Amino acid sequence: MASTSSMAGKWFARLLPLMLLTACQSLQTGDLLFHVVRQENRITAVTPGEIDHVGIYAGNDMVVEAIPRLGVVTTPLAQVLEREDGYYLRGRVKGIDRQRTIDNACSYLGMPYDSLYLQDNEAVYCSELVLMSYADRQGRTIFSPVPMTFRDSTGYIPRYWQELYARHGMQIPEGQPGSNPGELSQRKQVIIKKLKL
User: Fold this and answer.
1) How confident is the model over 126-165, as pLDDT tens digits?
2) In which order are the strands placed within the sheet that holds 51-59?
3) Do residues 24 and 61 touch, judged by C-beta distance below 8 A?
């Protein structure tokens, strides 16, 4: 007799194509995919909400995203949605030129991931990719940077961030221009909806 976990895996495998079809029907090229985590991590400890990542739906079941160790890559939507540590919200951005936005995002493919979260260097982090990519029909950027903070809700800078920047001989870029996925999800240009699966 098959184990319960193997039976559940088989049912999930059968349902996945239907789930992806439903997800694709609720997505438009240029939508944002915000990853909501169930457990706080180093990103969500110092940013609003429980969102620790954002990717750009490029159409054709592909997502452009900046991820640690790989940099800016295209990832199949199915692979993105299979990540088990949370769920996704769809962010529809008002007033964008969809093709220009995707072309902009794809122009960064192959760039390394920016684990120091700095502006104007040769590396890119996930929400920075969004800031640099989204444009309106006149080619103007939709999103502008905001002052970054590395402080938690008590005002303390967690040890992880202190040690990260100390290892690089740098000051923590507190207050410097930047972005984060949680704050982006709250922008007035973004309409948030739970992604239907």
Assistant:
1) 999 999 999 999 999 999 999 999 999 999 999 999 999 9
2) 71-76, 62-67, 51-59, 32-37, 86-93, 190-194
3) yes
**DSSP character at residue 43:** T
Residue 8 burial by Cβ neighbours in a 10 Å radius (0-12, 13-18, 19+): exposed
Residue with tokens 């193997």: 6
Q: How many CB atoms lie within 10 A of CB 113?
A: 19
Structure tokens of 191?
A: 């309409």
Contact (CB, 8 A) for 96 and 76: no
> What distance lies between CA 101 and its chain's CA centroid?
15
- Label residue 125 by pLDDT band (50, 70, 90): very high
CA distances (Å), origin 165, targets 23, 38, 116, 154: 39, 27, 8, 20
Q: Give dist(CA 42, CA 157) in Å, integer.
A: 11
Contact 16, 78 (CB under 8 A): yes
